[in-house]
Structure formats: C-alpha cells, structure tokens
Description:
CATH topology: Hypothetical Protein Mth938, Chain: A
Strand content: 25-35%
Organism: Maritalea mediterranea
Pfam family, one: DUF498
CATH superfamily: MTH938-like
Strand order of the largest sheet: 5-4-8-6-7
Protein name: MTH938/NDUFAF3 family protein
Shape: globular
CATH architecture: 3-Layer(aba) Sandwich
Number of domains: 1
Structural class: alpha/beta
Amino acid sequence: MTEQGANGFLKYQVPIDAYGNGGFRFGEMSHKGSLLCLPSGMHSWAVASPDQITHESLSKVWAEAGQIDVLFVGTGDQLLVLEKPIKQAGRDLSIITEPMSTGAAARTYNVLLGEKRAVAAALLAVERGK
C-alpha cells in the first residue's frame, strides 16, 4: 500500500513509470496534468503550457531549495529556454536548473533519483510519450 497525502499524491519521490496522454504514471498511480517531483513528494502542478512556467509557478521548488541540487524542467515536446528569473533563482539558491523536453527530463530525473541524488523535476504534461 502506498503512503498518500491528503491530495492523493505520494509523500515521497518515486520514479516516473510513464508519461504521455496528458499525464504521468508513478508509484502505482496515474495523474492527468503537469507534475512536480520534489523531496516532499509528488505534487500536481497547475501549469498547462510552456508560457506558464514562471518563477512564481515554481515557488514550491524554491521553498525546498535546501534539499535540491538539480532541477529538471520538462518544457513539453521540445526544449525551450527558461525565463531569466527562473535561472537566476536557481543560481541564487545553488540549484542547477536544466530545461529539456518533458521526456528527457523524466528519464534524467529517474536516473539521478536512482543514484539517490538531491534531484527535483517540474514536468509539463505532454500528449505523446512512453
């Protein structure tokens, strides 16, 4: 049985099992929409398009900065450049902030999580995936 928080999400980080069809599978759960994978657990992320990835929409990430060394930002089907305030916030908090396609971000997050690294991911939901 999985340990779930009040919102139905896990209270700890787990690998992403699959992505696509507008959501993710992880920890024997399925979620429609975007996702934050943080040291505090797996959380729904109210971001539906790349232009909504902002310093403010990543506030949960910044709140856990002391436990994160690397943040992968899945920007959808393609790699997009992050806004300067996002990159600056990462630098100010000693977080390496790497944008990449959602698929690449999910796969790389899984590898670093498996290595027990201090990793987080902000993943924009995509239709096509694995």
